Amino acid sequence: MAAWWARAIRMYPSGFRDAGEDVRTTLLAALFATRQAEITDALVELLVLWSTRSTPVPSVGWSGS
């Protein structure tokens, strides 16, 4: 996966267009899978930080009064 990602990250859009359909699909899948993992990791970190806050977080619909 890392090799496909490394290849894809260096390509210009025209390089994707010029590549065969199988190669293009594989390269885009590598990019999307890697990015999905990065986004998931960031969201988990955010959730952990949010869940360990010392101040309570108001629930949905909280009016503040």
As a whole number of angstroms, the C-alpha radius of gyration is 20 Å
Amino- and carboxy-terminal Cα gap: 53 Å
Shape: elongated
What would the average pLDDT be, to the nearest integer? 84
Instruction: Please report the total strand number as a whole number.
Output: 0
The class by helix and strand makeup works out as mainly alpha
Order of H and E elements: HHH
Q: Estimate nothing, just give the exact number of structural domains.
A: 1
Strand content: under 5%
The number of helical runs is 3
**Could you estimate the helical fraction of the residues in percent?**
55-70%
Uncertain segments: none
Taking the sheet with the most strands, its summary is: none
How would you characterize the overall build of this protein?
The chain has 65 residues and is mostly helical. It has one domain. Helices cover 69% and strands 0% of the residues. The chain contains three helices and no strands. Helix 1 packs across helix 3. The chain is elongated. The relative contact order is 0.11. The model has no long low-confidence stretch (mean pLDDT 84).
